[in-house]
Amino acid sequence: MAAQGATPPPHPPVENSAFAEYESRKGVKHLVDTRTDHLKTIPRQYVLPAALRPLTAVSPIPLPTVDLSGLQGPPAWRELTVRHIALACQEWGFFRIVNHGIKESLTEEMMRTVDAFFSLPWEEKAKYTSDDVMSTVRYGTSMNTPKPHILQWRDYLRHYGHPFYTSFHLWPDRPQNYREVAKEYLEEIWKVVLDLAGAISEGLGLERNYIKESLGEGTQILAANYYPACPQPELTLGLSPHSDHGGLTLLVDNGVTGLQVKHDNNWVPVPHLPGSFLVNIGDYLEILSNGRYKSVEHRAVVNKERTRISIAAGHGPQLSAAIGPAETLVEQDGGPKYKTMTYSDFMREQQSSAIRGKTALEAVLKRVAS
Ligand SMILES: O=C(O)CCC(=O)C(=O)O
Ligand SMILES: [Fe+2]
Predict the structure, then answer these.
(1) What is the mean pLDDT of residues 321-340?
(2) CA-based torsion, 216, 278, 146, 54: positive or negative
(3) Given ligand 1 and candidates 225, 237, 240, 245, which is best to mutate, with the most ligand atoms within 8 Å of its CB?
(4) Distance 298 CA to ligand 2 centre (A)
(5) What's the whole-model pTM score?
(6) Average pLDDT, the chain
(7) What are the φ and ψ backbone dihedral angles of 249, each rounded to 5 degrees?
(8) Per the record's keyword annotation, is Heme included, yes or no (predicted)?
(9) Ligand 2: centre distance to CA 76 (Å)
(10) Quick one: which atom of ligand 1 is closest to the CA of 227?
C-alpha cells in the first residue's frame, strides 16, 4: 500500500485488470478496436521504465536527399551521385532517395493493401502467427521475439520477398490483391536496391558488382508495421531502438511521422516527404564495409491522433551465405573488425533478442576481439 501523502504517480493509474496475456497476443489494433469505452490509458504491459520513454527527441535535422536519377546519367553525374551516397552512408547511414523510378501510385496501392490486411478480422491474421523468428510469413505484435519483454504499440506482418519462388505461395491471400500488389512493389524495390548496391560498392572503392555478387540470390524481407493511435504515447514506443540486420532497408510511411534516427547520440525525428523513400544501412553492410559504414539505430514513436503505417523492405544476402568484411577493405585496414558467420545465424540471433539496440552486431565484434 502507498504511504499516505506520498507523491502521486507521474501518470494516471493504468486500467488494465482485464488485459490478460492472451489478449495482448492479439495485438494493439485488436485492443484499440475492441474497447468500446475508448481506451484512455494503456495497459501496464506497454509502459516503459522512465529512462526508456521517448522524451528526448531533438528537432528534425534534414537528412541527406539523393537524386537517384544521377546513377543513370553521364559518367561525371554518376560519379557525383556515387560520392553523395558514400558521404550520406558515412555521415548518417540514413538518407532519402528521390527520382528512384518507383511510381507513387504503386507505393500508395501497396500502402492501401497493407492497411486492408491489418483491417481483416483478427482470426484471419492469426493464421500467420508463429513463434519462429525465421518463419517465412509472420503476423504478430510488439517485437519479433517471443521472449518476455515490455510490449510495444505495434502490430506487424513480415514475410520474405525476392526470390519469390521461396515464399510467394505462402503470402497472405487476403485482401485478394495482396500477393499481386506486394510482388510488383517488392520487384521494383529490388531493382532500386541493386542500383544502390552498385553505387555503394563503387563508393567503397570496390568493383561495381561487388555487393550484388555478395547478395547472390539475396534475401528480401518485407516488414509492414501498424501503429494505432495511442492514448499515452509518451509512456511507450511503437518500435524500440534497433538496427536492421540486412544491408539496405527501403522505408516508406503513410504520411504520419514517427520514425526517429539516432544521430550524434540524439534521437532525430524524420519528417515525411511525399514520393521519397528512406534508405538505411544495416548490419550486413557495416560488416561488409569492415565498419566504414555503420548500421544506424532507429525507433518509432506513436501519437494520440492517427494510425501510422510503415513498410520496410530489408535486403541481405541469401540465408546460407557467409557474411564478413570485403577482402580489399580488410587488407587496407590491416585486419577484419568482424568475424565471418552465416547470415541466417546472424539474423536469428538479432531477431531473437528482447533487448535490441545493436546487440547482435556487438556480439559479432566481440567474437573477433576475443
Ligand atoms: O516504422 C518505422 O518507421 C520503422 C520501422 C522499422 O524500423 C523496421 O521495420 O525495421
Ligand atoms: Fe528498422
Answers:
(1) 94
(2) positive
(3) 225
(4) 6
(5) 0.91
(6) 88
(7) -110, 135
(8) no
(9) 33
(10) 1
Burial class of residue 318 in the structure, from the number of CB atoms within 10 Å of its CB (0-12 exposed, 13-18 middle, 19+ buried):
middle
Q: Which atom of ligand 1 is nearest to the CA of 314?
A: 10
Identify the DSSP state of 172.
-
Parallel, antiparallel or unpaired: strands 248-253 and 308-316: antiparallel
| Phi, psi of 266, deg, nearest 5 | -115, 150
Reported as a pLDDT band with limits 50, 70 and 90, residue 89 is very high
Question: Nearest CA to 282 among 303, 260, 298, 300?
Answer: 298
Q: Which of the residue ranges 36-40, 94-98, 189-193 would you say has the lowest mean pLDDT?
A: 36-40
pLDDT band at 9 (very low <50, low <70, confident <90, very high): very low
User: How much is the pLDDT for 364?
Assistant: 66
Distance 312 CA to ligand 2 centre (A): 7
Nearest CA, atom 1, ligand 1: 310
Regarding the beta carbon of 244 and ligand 1, being less than 6 Å apart is answered yes
Of the two residues 149 and 7, the one the predictor is more confident about is: 149
Separation of CA 2 and ligand 1 centre (Å): 39
Across the chain, where does the E strand assignment appear?
A: 65-67, 94-98, 137-141, 155-160, 219-227, 239-242, 248-253, 259-263, 266-269, 277-281, 298-300, 308-316, 322-323, 341-342
Q: Looking at residue 290, what DSSP letter applies?
A: T
DSSP 349: H
Residue closest via CA to ligand 1's atom 6 equals 312
Ligand 1 near 225 CB (within 6 A): yes
The continuous run of DSSP H or E covering 83 comes out as helix 75-91
Helices 178-203 and 75-91, packing angle to 10 deg: 100
Burial of residue 295 (CB within 10 Å: 0-12, 13-18, 19+) is buried
Q: How far away, in angstroms, is 365 Cα from ligand 1 center? A: 24
Q: What is the rounded end-to-end Cα distance, in angstroms, of the chain? A: 49
User: Do 145 and 349 meet the contact criterion of CB atoms below 8 Å apart?
Assistant: no
Task: Determine the atom of ligand 1 nearest the C-alpha atom of 156.
Answer: 9
